[in-house]
Structures are given as C-alpha cells and as structure tokens.
Amino acid sequence: MIRPRKLLFVITDGGRAHFVEYHGATSSFARLAEMDQMHHIASARVKQRGKESGRTHESSGPGKHLVGASDEVRTVKKAFMAEVARETAKVANQGGFTAVVAAAPARLVGELKRQLTGKIEIASTLGKDLTKVPEHELGHWFQSALFETHEA
After folding, report:
1. What is the CATH number of the domain that holds 20?
2. How many domains, the chain?
3. CB neighbourhood size of 86 (10 A)
4. What SS3 state is found at 69?
5. What domain range includes position 126?
6. Residue 71: which residues within 8 A CB-CB, separation 6 or more?
7. How far apart are CA 54 and CA 64, in angstroms?
8. pTM: predicted TM-score of the whole model, two decimal places
C-alpha cells in the first residue's frame, strides 16, 4: 500500500529555526514552533572582531584569505545545528511525524543532516536559507518532497 509520509519541514540558518507542517487539505504550511538564538551569533561576532586572524595570499590572484581554526561564528552555528536536531526530534515525536525535510544554508545543511541521523528519517535536504520565505511560498521550494510517496 502506498501512503504519503507525514513530513516535518525544518527551515534553519545559523541562528533561527522554523518547524513547519504541511496541511494537504488546504495546501498550506503552518509553523509549529521556532527557535531564535541570533544573539549568540551577534556576541560571537563581537568577540571575533577583536582578534587578528592570520592571512594568506591567493595563488591565482591578489586576494587574501583568513586562516586559523578559531572561527567563533562557525562554532556557534555548528552548536546551534545540534540544538535544532534535538528540537526536531522532540517536535517530530510529539506530532507523529515520520520523516523530516531540512532546509539550511549549504555550509550548514551537512552538519544538520549529520546531527539528525539516527534521530529521525531524513526525507530530503535543501541547501538553501529559507528562513525569511513566508509560509505561503514554501510550496515552490518543497514541491518534490510534498508529492513523493513511499511503500508502507
């Protein structure tokens, strides 16, 4: 028997996350929960401003790049992905969701997927920041995930 999965859509960037459900009867998305920890990123940026990073020259042009392992902002964003994964498991468990569709910026989507593995089935991922996209426009981005079915 083929039946549609009950999907939880997780839309996140480095400091915000929205947990969204699709209602097939009305063809609309509804936000179930959200997280906002942008203040952690702001404070990490303030800390990082005072530090001098090493620089290296670009081999193919005049550009320079920062080097060094102490990137405070990336560390904060990576930690936030772990929190998002924990909250995703909690929301999915409470709502009876069978799988998750995750959308995050390309640099973070891999980390989110890694954190979600073993907690809930991952139906698909999208390497795009959709946190500022209104719910009524999400169908455009999640078209393929909405109409996939799986064997029961």
Report:
1. 3.30.420.60
2. 1
3. 13
4. coil
5. 2-51+67-151
6. 48
7. 10
8. 0.76
